[in-house]
Amino acid sequence: MNILFTFKAEPDLGMLSTLEWQAAARQGGPDTSALPVSPGADEQTAAAILLAQVKTNNALKLTALTLGDQRALHWLRYFAALGFEKRILIEADNIHRFAPETVARQIARQQGINHAELIVTGSLSSEGQNGQTPYLVAEMLGWPCLSQVTDFSVEPPFVVVQQKTRRCRVRLPAIIAVCQTGAPAMPVPGMRQRLAAAKSDIIREPLAFEESPRTTVVSTQTPPPRGAVTMIDGATAQEKAQTLWRKYLQPRMVK
């Protein structure tokens, strides 16, 4: 079973000095081109959970994917040392790294190439904190997306997910967005694994853009307002519940 693990290599803003922050306020933002990068706390938690399961299930094949520049190569080799069988770097500049839809399209494209049945992401990045990417990928692929995941276990053809408020069992394929809870910690590879990973292959691909289809506007109309309320009439609460089920809930159930 193929699992696609995606992470964002974020610059360590804590390494900026006070003078650099003051200069950034005048320039419209800090210069992060020379800072080292690392995965976010959410992604590190997700990687630790995945690696713990690979030890007991050799059928799980892990692929690490990130968008960025050559600074991310260090972490891809780090994941190679930990046991990720495939590493992919999609070379992108900072403008596209902050475009959730573009990032989501790259992830959806790689899912088709690698035939992944499970996509694991973080919930938020420390840079953008928009939290849109996993939902956009889910919409593009037509997969369910579970957020606020604190733990999970892969039990093909299902994934058992522990969220902050519930525990559920979902049939694959699926996308899960992990949030950091303080544990477990990502393992540290030994020197022998690091030396072997230094020569490991990393797939480097350019950012892929899909040509937008040409469309012609025929007419426009105002969409209905969001949050419209439909009143359900009934003599008793039981009758109202039956109407709710028959007219609104039952047609949405996946058979």
Task: Give a structural overview.
The chain is an alpha/beta fold. Helices cover 32% and strands 23% of the residues. It has 8 helices and 11 strands. It has helices at 18-27, 41-54, 73-82, 94-97, 100-114, 133-141, 191-197, 237-249, and strands at 2-6, 10-11, 37-38, 61-68, 86-91, 118-122, 145-155, 158-163, 167-171, 174-178, 203-206. The strands form 2 sheets. A 9-stranded mixed beta sheet has the order 9-8-7-10-6-1-4-5-11, with helices on both faces. A hairpin with a 3-residue loop joins strand 8 (158-163) and strand 9. The longest helix has 15 residues, at 100-114. It is globular, with a radius of gyration of 22 Å. The two termini are 25 Å apart.
- Number of DSSP helices? 8
Quote the average pLDDT.
84
Overall morphology: globular
Tell me about the biggest sheet? 9 strands, mixed
Structural class: alpha/beta
Whole-number radius of gyration? 22 Å
First-to-last CA distance:
25 Å
User: Strands of the largest sheet, in order across it?
Assistant: 9-8-7-10-6-1-4-5-11
Low-confidence stretches: none
Strand content: 15-25%
Helix content: 25-40%
Order of helices and strands: EEHEHEHEHHEHEEEEHEH
Extended strand count? 11
Architecture blueprint of SSEs:
Elements lengths: L1 E5 L3 E2 L6 H10 L9 E2 L2 H14 L6 E8 L4 H10 L3 E6 L2 H4 L2 H15 L3 E5 L10 H9 L3 E11 L2 E6 L3 E5 L2 E5 L12 H7 L5 E4 L30 H13 L6
Parallel strand pairs: 1-4, 1-6, 4-5, 5-11, 6-10, 7-10
Antiparallel strand pairs: 2-3, 7-8, 8-9
